[in-house]
Structures are given as C-alpha cells and as structure tokens.
Amino acid sequence: MKKIYVGNFSFNLTEQELWALFEPGTVESATLVTDRDTGRSRGFGFVSMTNDEEAEKAMAALNGRDSGGRALVVNEARPQAPRTGVRDAGRGGNVRQRREPRW
Hints:
Layout: E1 2-7, H1 15-21, E2 27-34, E3 41-49, H2 52-62, E4 66-67, E5 70-71, E6 73-76
Antiparallel strand pairs: 1-3, 1-6, 2-3, 4-5
C-alpha cells in the first residue's frame, strides 16, 4: 500500500472529489487536512492506494495537473517528523535559555 501526498488544490475540493481523481485505481482512503479552528481545508491531503503500480501511475499522471486553476503537487508521502517545542521541555525540546543582562 502507498500513501500519496496531494497538495496545492482548491480549498473547496471535497474528499469525494479527491477520491475521484484517483478512482481509476484502487483507492483505500482519501483524507483532506483541515484547520483545527475553522474546519476549512488547508489545501492538501492524503490518498492511500492498495496497488503500488497504480499509485505510481496516478502520481505521474496527476502531478502538475491543473485543478481549479492550480497545479497539483502529487508525490509519495513522507513520514511525519517528530515535533519539538515548549511542551517537550523536559525531554530536550526547544527551550529558550535565560540570558544575562548586557550591563
């Protein structure tokens, strides 16, 4: 199974329309990424296809294709990078060091 990143599409695209773009192949799932606060699409999503050969063909055919006046970006999804930040302070995350006064 291959997970495919699809980006730069219209914020009005629905999951059903995203699914339909890949429909000639065997689609396992299609998911839009939405803004946590507004619920609106963030303009990218992921499609999982069960057949790797069909996924490769779909990526080649759809990458750069016009969708609502925008060129789609379609490629194999990469694993999500681990997040670091203030919440990870006790585990070596990004914590601001206190500085000495300059005078």
